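User: Just a sanity check before I run the rest of the batch. Below are the structure tokens for the first item. I only need the designed sequence back.
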């Protein structure tokens, strides 16, 4: 018995990216913010797992709806658990100066997204403007 076709799998991924991940379905004010900078460890220890999950779960949708918004990611390879590595999210202006900073250490990805939404100037995309790849629509 054959599995799902590649096209069906890709449509499912696109649907999750554009329609079912609700919180990052926003338009960021491009006049105020130029980019987002994330810094965290490549490994999960020292309270960095929420940052990694935030990056994986929310940023693809955020980038999809804000294609000109730059997202810079620095994953630090650190094998020594005693060494402290920053776990921060920074919202930057056009000059590269931080306007807002969020400490992501020991926070769940959903809590990071909630704090991000409280700090950033944005508009929620109306339901009828969301992009769907569902073959029934």
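Assistant: Here's the designed sequence for the first item:
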């Amino acid at each position: 018995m054959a599995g799902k076709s590649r096209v069906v799998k890709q449509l499912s991924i696109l649907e999750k990216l554009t329609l079912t991940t609700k919180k990052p379905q926003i338009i960021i004010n491009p006049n105020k913010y130029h980019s987002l900078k994330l810094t965290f460890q490549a490994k999960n220890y020292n309270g960095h797992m929420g940052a990694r999950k935030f990056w994986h779960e929310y940023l693809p949708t955020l980038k999809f709806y804000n294609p000109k918004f730059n997202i810079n990611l620095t994953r630090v390879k650190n094998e020594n658990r005693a060494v402290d590595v920053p776990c921060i999210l920074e919202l930057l202006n056009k000059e590269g100066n931080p306007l807002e900073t969020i400490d992501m250490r020991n926070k769940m990805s959903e809590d990071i997204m909630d704090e991000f939404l409280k700090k950033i100037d944005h508009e929620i995309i109306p339901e009828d403007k969301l992009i769907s790849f569902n073959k029934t629509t």
